[in-house]
Task: inverse folding
């Protein structure tokens, strides 16, 4: 059931999902570190997001009560944010198809596949509210993903906060203090080298984002075609398998786009499914029976907290601002 209403400069939408879901689990992939200027969770349980929509900047506030979702939005992009709210929250996610995949593997007669399916089914039961949603904004997912290439999270998130604070615009409406809307592609193209340096992003990542910004319009036309997005993204210099997957997970809601090339995943996925660490080829082999839902399986494993024993120091963040 959908009801929409306009209250002054605020627009609202009520939507009741077909099944219970977890708001924070579903929207957390769109958060880029603590203090993300585009994502906040307030003490009342509401999640706030900003987005540069095709209609302009907008702020979205989402709450759930009694199984009903309430979306409230402000700014020129408010109507677009409310129209696409179900997609963002996973209304298009093929959860039934995933259940059928698990059932098929359980009956396959292959002991390894059956054990893996039973393990993953248990994880899915504990995170039953997880949905793979899609933001439908490709460049909005791309810029922070590039900043996160081959660095520790704190380093990437520091750069994201700096660039958003300096070049983004204040969020429309009564958003929490410090929230900003991502700048448009033309602004990213014009960021001077010294501000990339101040952000702590070296020239390679800066050039990758600037070049991608030149092709943003073409990338945005792929919101219904994850495979085409993968082809176009990986044709751009500096964008490989990992970055493409990170973008398609968020913008396209692709449940089959595992982040191959991630530093931590070979250990986490291999240990969870076999008790042994593996490599990127090993991950793909272990996930192949789950094809169609490989990213979903990785996400469930990440949420489970299952980890191999820690050995050695963590990778330290770098700071290019000192160079």
Result:
């Amino acid at each position: 059931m959908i009801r929409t209403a306009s209250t002054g400069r605020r627009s609202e939408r009520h939507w009741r999902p077909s099944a219970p879901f977890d708001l924070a689990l579903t929207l957390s992939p769109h958060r880029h570190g603590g203090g993300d200027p585009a994502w906040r969770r307030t003490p009342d349980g509401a999640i706030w997001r900003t987005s540069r929509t095709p209609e302009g900047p907008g702020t979205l506030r989402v709450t759930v009560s009694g199984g009903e979702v309430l979306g409230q939005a402000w700014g020129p992009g408010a109507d677009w944010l409310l129209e696409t709210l179900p997609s963002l929250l996973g209304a298009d996610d093929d959860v039934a198809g995933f259940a059928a995949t698990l059932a098929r593997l359980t009956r396959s007669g292959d002991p390894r596949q059956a054990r893996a399916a039973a393990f993953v089914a248990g994880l899915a039961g504990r995170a039953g509210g997880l949905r793979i949603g899609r933001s439908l904004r490709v460049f909005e997912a791309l810029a922070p993903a590039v900043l996160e290439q081959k660095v520790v999270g704190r380093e990437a998130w520091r750069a994201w906060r700096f660039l958003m604070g300096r070049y983004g615009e204040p969020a429309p409406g009564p958003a929490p203090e410090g929230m900003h809307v991502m700048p448009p592609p033309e602004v990213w193209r014009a960021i001077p080298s010294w501000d990339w340096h101040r952000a702590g992003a070296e020239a390679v990542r800066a050039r990758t984002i600037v070049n991608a910004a030149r092709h943003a319009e073409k990338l945005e036309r792929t919101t219904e075609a994850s495979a085409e997005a993968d082809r176009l993204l990986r044709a751009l210099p500096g964008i490989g398998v990992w970055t493409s997957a990170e973008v398609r997970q968020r913008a396209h809601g692709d449940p089959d786009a595992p982040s191959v090339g991630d530093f931590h995943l070979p250990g986490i996925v291999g240990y969870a499914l076999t008790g042994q660490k593996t490599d990127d080829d090993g991950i793909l082999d272990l996930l192949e029976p789950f094809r169609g839902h490989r990213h979903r399986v990785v996400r469930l494993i990440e949420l489970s907290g299952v980890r191999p024993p820690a050995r050695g120091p963590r990778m330290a963040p770098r700071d290019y601002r000192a160079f």
About this structure: The CA atoms of residues 143 and 209 lie 6 Å apart. The radius of gyration is 20 Å. The longest strand covers residues 56-65.
